Amino acid sequence: MTWLLAAMPSTASSAQLPPAAPIPPVRDAARPNSEQAFSNVQIFPRPDATPAVIHVAPLGNATGDGTAARPFGTLAQAQEAVRQINADRPVQVLLADGTYWLDAPLRFGAEDGGRNGHVVHWMAAPGAHPTLSGGTRVQGWRLADRSRNIWMADIPKGSDPRQLWVDGRMAHRAAVEAPRAAFAFFDWGIRIVDPAWRFLARLPDQGRMEVESTGFFTDRRAVIDHIEGDRIILRQPGWRNNLIGYDTFARPVSGEKGRFFLANALAFVRSGGDWFADPAKGLLYYRPEDGRRPDQSDIVLPRLELLVAIGGTADAPVGNLEFHGIAFRHTSWRGPSSAQGYASQQSGAYLAGDIADYPADPIRDCSWGCAAFERQRNHWRQQPAAVQVSGAQRVIFDDTTFAQLGQIALGIGNNAEATSAGPGLAVQSIEVRNSRFGPLAGGAIMVGGTTQDAHHPSRSQMAVRDIVIRNNHIETVSQDYREQAAILVTYATGALILNNDVSDAPYDGIDVGWGWGTNDPGGNSAYMSRARGYYDQPGNRIYETPTILRDTVIFGNRVHGVKRWYPDGGAIYHLSADPGALIAENHIYDVPGGIGVYLDEGSRYVTVRNNVIDGVGLWVNLNAQDDARPRRTNMDNIATGNWYNWGKANGNWSSYLNNRLVDNVAVKGDAWPAEARAVIARAGPQPLETWP
Asked: Model pTM greater than 0.90?
């Protein structure tokens, strides 16, 4: 197996490309001692014997023996060596400096973790910064069109990634924005209303082009089949699935403020940073920024859809496995390039497959929910992460880096279909600490699933429990899949989200909860109405027992510069019943016009305490579903002792719902009292812990 790929040879000569297609202009469219409150939350390994040490180097001798003098040359060799000794003693796998270019995902099963109470550490050698990469460098650039400053390079034929990374940043996949009013939407596809856009029918390779729509909280994609005159025919079932539910392709909640794009054509390479891949010819086209040449940049083409899979079974999980000082980079999930498209619902969940009893007129009858859509809620799929953990216990990521990944970076206990190893779900005692996330095409961390087994596990082993996300820097995420929260926890028991810094995100910073209250005891009465009829659909039960979501703590985080694209959601957002939930001592700022803390449908038993909220539109918002009154769903919440300098508290804070606002303090400008300044000083990552 070759881990370091050589540059592709240059074989094609410079060519004059067809002129760029004309693009019409886009229409403007506080509690005592809180600094020590969680100082002892850790997952401790058992005291152990002197570990065995295995050395690996990206250029090591393939016949090495794993010693420092003769390191193994591949990770697979090291992995096989671990399996021979991990039942008898702890193991340290020391990765030398450099990039380990993976030809296939690295997979860890039950045989790879520490056994009989021992621990296996995969870690950077002293002073090293090793990277596991699922990509390959692109070299051998030559001019393809001098007049348009478009360059090309050879790539392996068949390569069709959705992202390209240039000097560590995500380059812009060729796309143009168009006014929604120039098009009309139907169940078969899109009609071009404005003649200025008829040129689309003359573009080559139409079957690889896509349409994209961003609305109030979704980012939807569909693939074009072909274009006939003024008719853009879309591939099914992806297009049909994008037309039903809420905030749909044809009728976004934001109306004409919703944005519309056409993507993935060479004609759309128009500005510095644009790129386009031709998999049939094995060519990559790129227009560098003005004044630069592509051979002056480090350009990496992602090849793998999955980088690392950690998965045993519910009964024989992977255990006692740790990663320290390693970077995970360069993947591209290609799901939206298929006929399924990406029928986004919210934060990495999407609708796929053929829908039974699909409405005859979906745009008319299912743009604000319908029976066919409600039947699917427990069957939404999740975007598979680049690094996946399922069927696992006592796994730690410490001082790691997740960057240049083309999807959600780290998935912990997600749906089975989003997991390539393990049963899906079934994780406990997982910790992510002192790590860096970003830049990323998707969200940073997604914990939990969306299925019935996620909220009411059929076996206790399937539950997601005791997840700690602590002291991480998360920045510049969800650049491609804009609807994804930086941190999402759907259903989990005892999730702790502590002292992270979250910034530069188009959607929410931290999201907890799922199901909109429908799976809580007694259900959500707002979903029993004729308009939704959720419980009339097969499989959608009214449960009399609670979900596993409880005892969530969101404490001491610094959340800022989020909500840059969508008006919906909040810097910190919560859904459904969560007994024991605490949102406390977070510092939220730089979210102009947005919502600080949002308690959405079904939120119950949540305490919002001693947060400092600076410069937002609403400092707290409670969606009490008043249209269902006198029925009650969002109740037993309290917001107390918070400081805010802008906005108001919105929602039904009443004794009837037992939702209370107590002793919250309005502050002028930046005149924060001493207690608030102390919260600000303590928020965000604390000094890095030293690995024991």
From this structure: yes
